[in-house]
Structure formats: C-alpha cells, structure tokens
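Lab manual, section 2.4: Encoding a predicted structure.

Procedure: take the sequence of the chain (80 residues), apply the prediction step described in section 2.3, and record the output as structure tokens. A sample record is shown.
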Amino acid sequence: MKTTRPRTIREIMLDGTLIDEAMKKAAREALALYKRAGVPVPVWRDGKTVWIRPEDTGPPDEGDSLKRKDLNESRSKRLK
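Recorded output:
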C-alpha cells in the first residue's frame, strides 16, 4: 500500500487551490453573517472601500459572483 506524504506549505502556496477555497468559504460565511445582522458589507472596488447594502447582495449562492470578483481583483492587485 502506497502512502502519500503531506504537502509542504510551499507546495500549498504555489498551487493556491486550497487557499482559494478557504478564502471563498470565508467570504461566503462573512457575507451570510453581515446579511443576518442586516448591516452593510464592505468590499474593495477600484482602489477604495465600498459599502453594499445587505438587500443588494442576494441569496448566498447568488452572491458568489460578487465575492469571486472581489477576491480575484484583490489577488491580482497583490500579485502585480
């Protein structure tokens, strides 16, 4: 029986998939928390913080495109 060794932190960082999934999960959970609390959600757009009303975020599944866009923008800015 062949056993696989655990991935190193370097391998995880270079691949990025686990990190992306963790960020998406955290964003979904944060959005749901803000929505339940009925408070505006801060997001980063065009170099500044923008506050989005909870009613404008849609159900958690529909909000994925918003979160994915914001995460991708943030990631691409960090990598430049």
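Check your result against the sample. The two ends are 44 Å apart (CA to CA).
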